[in-house]
Amino acid sequence: MPKRLIFPSIAAIILSFLVGAFKPQSGQGTALVQQTSCKNFPETGQRVCGKFLTYWMAHGGLAQQGYPLTNEFTEPSEIDGKTYTVQYFERAVFELHPENHPPNDVLLTLLGDIFYRQRYPNGAPELPAPLNPVAGLTFPQTGKWIRGVFLDYWKAHGGVPQQGYPISNPFNEKSAVDGKTYTVQYFERAVFELHTENQPPYDLLLSQLGTLQLKRKYSGGVPGAATPTPSTDAWTTLAQRPLKITTLAPGSPCPTSGGKMVAPDFGLALGDGPVYPTGFSSDAVYYYGSALQEGGWYLLKVLWIASPNYRGPALVRGKQIDGPNELRFKEGADPPKELRLDTSDTNNRTDQGWSNWPTYTRLRAPGCYAYQVDGVSFSQVIIFRASNAFPPPPKR
What is the pTM of this model? Predict the structure, then answer.
C-alpha cells in the first residue's frame, strides 16, 4: 500500500494506483483504480477502499456485511443491465452509483430479489400468518409484512435503504451454506435467518448471499485476483482465538461427533463443516491398533476436506478432553501443535471443487479427543475417540 505523503500546506494527499489487470472471462469485469484510504483483511487477502470502506464501516462492518471476498471490479447488473463498479462481501455486494448524491452513491445489489426469483419462480411456501399477530408492518409495495424479531432487526439495521422491502413472508428453507433448515424471510437486498440456537443479538443473521452469488457467477475464479494465499497475519489471527474445548472427568462417556457423507469422493466426515476430518468409523472412533510410531507418537492417517463453499485458511488445534495428553499433527519426533489447511492450493481440489489434505493426527494414548477448527467465518469443535484396538470386523 502506498504511504500517505504529508506536506506543510495540506494534511494529506490521497494517491491512487492501478491494480494489476486480469484477463476477464465472458461476462467478467476488469480491475479498477483503487484509493489508498483502505483497510486490509488478511483473513481473505482482500482489502476495502474509499467509499466502499466508508459504507462498510457505517453499516455494520463485519457483523452485517462480512469479510471482502474480492477487490473492486466492474460487472453488468442482472437487474437493469447497466455496468457498475462492485465489490463482493460474504453477505452483500456493494455497487457504486456515482450518478447519485451521497449517501445513495453506494447501494447494495438486490441479491434477495435475484435469489428469490431463481429459487421460487412460483412463490415460496410461506408459513401461515399468526392468528393473533404481534404488532408489525405491512408493505403495500409488495403485499408482505414484517413482525417480531425480523421487524426489530430490519428497523435497527437500515430498513429500506439497507435491506429493501420484504418480498416474502417467513418460511422454512434449507441453507445452501450449511445444509440446515432455518426460518427465513426474503428482502430485496438480503435474506434474514432465524437462529434459535443462538442468544441475542446473534439469533438473527443474514444469509451469505455474497458468497453464494460469487460462486454462482464466477465459479472459474474470483474476478480481479486469484484466490489469495493466507498470510502469516491470517494464521496469527486464527491462532489468537481461544480454545473452546471443554474437559471431561476420566472414564466419562465420550460425546463423539457423528459421522456422515458430505461428498461422494470421500468417506464419513465428522462435524458440521465447512472443513471436516475423515477416516473415522460411523461413531467417530479411530482404531489405531496397527498404526506406526515415531518418537513415542502414533501416526493416525486423517484426510481433511473442505467444501467448495469455503475459500480461506483453516487452523486445526486439539487436545485430549478426558486426560492430560496432547494432540499433534504431521510427522517428526516433535510434531507440530497445529495444522494449517490452505484452500488456495488448487492442486488439492477435486473436479467438484472440494479441497483435501492427506495428513497425520498424532497422539500417545487412547482416549477422548477434540479438534478445534477455526476459519475466517466459522469455528467448530469436533470430538472423536481414539482406540488402540484393531477395528471390528464389518457387519454381515
Answer: 0.52
